[in-house]
Amino acid sequence: MHPKNLSISDFTYVLPPERIAQHSLAQRDESRLLLYQNGKISEDIFRNLAYHLPENSTLIFNDTKVIHARIIFKNENGAKIEVFLLEPVEPQRELQLAVLQHRECAWRCFVGNAKKWREEKMTKKFFFGDEKGILEVTKAGRIEDDFLIHLRWQPENLSLSQVLDAAGFVPLPPYIKRIATKEDDAQYQTIYAAQSGSVAAPTAGLHFTENVFQSLKEKKIQSVFTTLHVSAGTFLPVKSTTMEGHQMHHEQIVVHRDTIEKLLHSLDRLVICVGTTSLRTMESLYWLGKNLSEGKKELEVEQWQPYESENSSFTVSDSLSVILDWMQKNKTEHLVAETKLLIAPGYQFKIADGLITNFHLPQSTLLLLVAAFIGEDWRKVYDCALKKDFRFLSYGDASLLFRNKSAE
Predict the structure, then answer these.
(1) pTM
(2) DSSP of 100-121, one letter per residue?
(3) Which residues of the chain have pLDDT under 50?
(4) Domains of the chain and any CATH numbers
């Protein structure tokens, strides 16, 4: 069956509100770990992750960093108006460069309570260390259901990232029903976060600590880092009856040459993706290489591409080699691309053998990905997690899932 015909109502379960974790654990690696392999389920504590991974396997991490994308302004009458940065428009569209911009820029934004914004501009004062600053925003047009917002700030020597750190808030997911605190600045960020640009954390990575990394190293498990900047679209529910009516959000990925070379030289290793974002990045790499091999110039993966592409003998090794050749010809050390890839039952995985992930919302594209990965056993996994009081969603517990190849 083509995933377009999948009914989203077939991918639901009852999630009691009290099972949604509202706070992180004080010690990240004390979260519980549900294990699934060959139809069998067991559990452990996350700090023991390395024990459950084969020696010489490769872990793929998403090193994106969450920015303080949520800014609260007050209009001249004191009403609160939220400006939520979604993606950069001018002068730089590449996220990792856009957050380094100085003085001014324009972003696509969601605006909460927009009807109350009647002024030409709104301003917000902030402190960055001992420096006083001011951020000014003006509406510059519409982009579909969102706004094009022009941002300008003083002092001009500050980067946008520094301004957001001082003036904005951590954009906690909508199902966390509380105001973000200073604790979230640290806890809603992986310890290896390096590339600013996400408006949501790659939450499977939140469980990792230096002790866990040391245990991986002792077992000769390779850690490889790549980047997918998580967009607000990750929280969008599927509102259509079938998947054909759902438009996947696009997300920006950045993959360095050394990452691709490491993958190419370790194809005999088991590849475990830390989070759905890492998995989508790895699988998107294959399709990007295939596109380049066919002479396509756009560095993007479309939503339905894997399901409508002709079957071929084009291998992962072929794809990675094509990407490296392209990088050589274009004299670049990193690949920047867009992906809209929807991974749903019927998808044939190219790179990922295992997945570390949290527990996801009913009727979500993330749950569809899990169902594609382990088949109908997703119900057994989620029933077990609910029965045994696992904590769900971003600040919740984790699972280690090994691919059920019979599900493809």
Answers:
(1) 0.94
(2) T-BSEEEEEEEEETGGG--SSE
(3) none
(4) 3-65+191-407 (3.40.1780.10), 69-168 (no CATH)
